[in-house]
């Protein structure tokens, strides 16, 4: 079956090929109703706008792609220096994935095309990248599911992080639940902490939710009360870590002996807030994070965390893409990469790296 063309889309939508072209090149120049009709026709046909039709047809571009969200809005001024720091640390996460993919791509004779975007739409990453690569990896929640369904009909796609939303796509994630479970058990069994608090991410963050399930499992196994929800939820930034730390201190009753944050950025912000209030870490309250970002070992006290194999995540993405290019009919693969608890001073350990 031949790939659908711009002519097919134009016929299906009842417009000219020039209108189809404008929808993808300059969407604001097309009336919303017409634009929606063209995009609906394209999705239904499985049409992929291509900057290199020959490469798309032959699968011989020699390039693999990586799509990830742009964490900082270039049109919005940062409200504080911490906002810029939050974005920079998030970019470090993507940077490690990029390094892993580049290393593996070179090994297989491929170049790597990197694209970041704030949102989907006619000029989304799918439209910009799909026609220029042989296959691509996509970080969870970067590209709308319906767009991925269309592109995966033509190109190999590997999903990185988050749950497996599309059964027929290859998928890699890290063992968030097991890592948080092991860290929580360490605080309970090795340090004797009994009054714990968990600061989670927003409910639509699959990684944060998996980490909370790991926390629940450890509490259940240790005979501690098992909460239905995190003590607090927040955006996973340093600013929110500062805010939630202050909120926990302001609550009535005995303060927690240890606070587990769903990521390192929140935990780093909490360390700053606690220091300003004269609260000793870990003397008064232990603090832990998750991810293993570089900043976690530089703050004082150094942060106990769960380290993700982020670079390995990128390497495995390339391996799956290469295998899929060699055999498009093989069964989809879902990999779960292990994580490592790194014990440092913020929980009361002497520290390690």
Q: How many strands?
A: 12
What would you report as the Rg, rounded to the nearest angstrom?
23 Å
Distance between the termini: 54 Å
Q: Could you report the average pLDDT, rounded to the nearest whole number?
A: 85
Query: What characteristic shape results from the CA principal axes?
Result: elongated
Low-confidence stretches: 51-59, 72-80, 118-123
Strand order of the largest sheet: 2-1-3-4-5-11
- The helix/strand series, from N terminus to C terminus, equals HHHHEHEHEHEEHEHEHEHEEHEE
The proportion of strand residues reads: 5-15%
- State the helicity in percent bands: 40-55%
Task: Give the assembly state of these chains.
Answer: single chain
State the helix count: 12
Give a short account of the largest sheet: 6 strands, parallel
SS-derived structural category: alpha/beta
Concise summary:
The protein contains 12 helices and 12 strands. The protein is of the alpha/beta class and 353 residues long.
Structure, described:
Helices cover 42% and strands 15% of the residues. Helix 5 crosses helix 12 (310-326), helix 8 (176-190) packs parallel to helix 9 and helix 10 (238-250) crosses helix 11 (264-276). With 353 residues, it is of the alpha/beta class. Helix 11 (264-276) links the parallel strand 8 and strand 9. It has 12 helices and 12 strands. It has a 6-stranded parallel β-sheet with strand order 2-1-3-4-5-11. The protein has a 4-stranded parallel β-sheet with strand order 7-6-8-9, sandwiched between helices. It has a two-stranded antiparallel ribbon with strand order 10-12. The model is unreliable at 51-59, 72-80 and 118-123 (pLDDT under 50).
